[in-house]
Specification:
With about 260 residues, the chain is of the alpha/beta class. The chain is built from six helices and 13 strands.
Length: about 260
């Protein structure tokens, strides 16, 4: 296994050539500028991926104007944590490049999308691809209207999903008003096949007992027939609320619920 990391401006406008001469060697690639650096440095740039033997891709960089995906078919683990100036949400095309790079890794088994990545995706109309091999999904969360619709979209397109991690926002004062009203009520929608048949582990990070968070916990417990573990990482421990959650109806007779302090 070989690995390569590029920091900051090293990624620039670099074109990543096909790795036709490396035999059966698998490749890891990390593009990491750090979220604290300039977030719009690739605003007018194109990033081209042509890495047919790449198995691990971590992209923690500013979102470019476009991704050109020639070949990322071998990627098993994909991690996207894009950055951009949120003041330009109405001025930049963010949905298309984000959707394009997600479509490039549809063969992956493990996928992480940060809150900013998902926010970029939801700035326009999009149709997610089917992730036929995906077993582990980790989603960040920001102020996204129709969050439940977005979550269901991923669940419906991940038929083999076994592990789901939901990372709530972890800064600022939080109230129920922070979770925008969602027209999509989870309980009113058809249950995704992965939820009813193969979802085994759910991690909820930074749980604060907000209405939307609690609704998703209730939904998961009621619908996930194969669920073995639900792990809730609490922003602040509340024994009374935890006791209530432990009493929620569960579709799976072997499901255990545990509470942990937020890391």
């Amino acid at each position: 296994m070989s690995g390569q990391k590029y920091k900051g401006s090293e990624v620039g406008l670099q074109l990543f050539p096909a790795c036709s001469g490396i035999g059966n060697i698998s490749i890891k690639l990390t593009l990491d500028a750090g979220i604290g650096e300039v977030l719009d440095q690739l605003e007018y740039s194109s990033v081209h991926f042509n890495l047919p033997r790449l198995v691990y891709l971590k992209y923690s960089e500013s979102l470019p104007k476009q991704y050109v995906i020639s070949n990322l078919n071998s990627v098993v683990h994909a991690h996207f944590e894009v950055g951009y100036d949120e003041n330009e949400l109405d001025e930049r095309e963010l949905c298309k490049p984000m959707l394009d790079v997600i479509k490039g890794v549809t063969n992956c088994e493990i996928l992480f999308l940060s809150g900013l990545s998902l926010q970029a995706l939801t700035t326009g109309d999009f149709a997610l691809p089917v992730f036929k091999n995906l077993t582990r999904l980790k989603l960040g969360q920001r102020y996204i209207a129709d969050w439940n619709s977005l979550l269901l979209n991923f669940l419906n397109n991940s038929p083999r999903l076994e592990s789901l991690t939901l990372m709530q926002r972890n800064y600022g004062r939080r109230t129920d008003d922070d979770e925008l009203d969602d027209d999509c009520l989870l309980g009113d929608q058809p249950v995704p096949s992965c939820v009813s048949s193969c979802l085994k582990v759910i991690n909820v990070k930074n749980f604060s007992c907000l209405r939307g968070q609690t609704d998703r916990v209730v939904y998961s417990l009621e619908k996930a027939n194969a669920l073995e573990q639900m792990i809730i990482h609490c922003r602040q421990r509340n024994s009374e609320r935890e006791d209530e959650i432990l009493k929620f109806p569960k579709a799976s007779k072997i499901c255990s619920i545990s509470f942990k302090d937020r890391k």
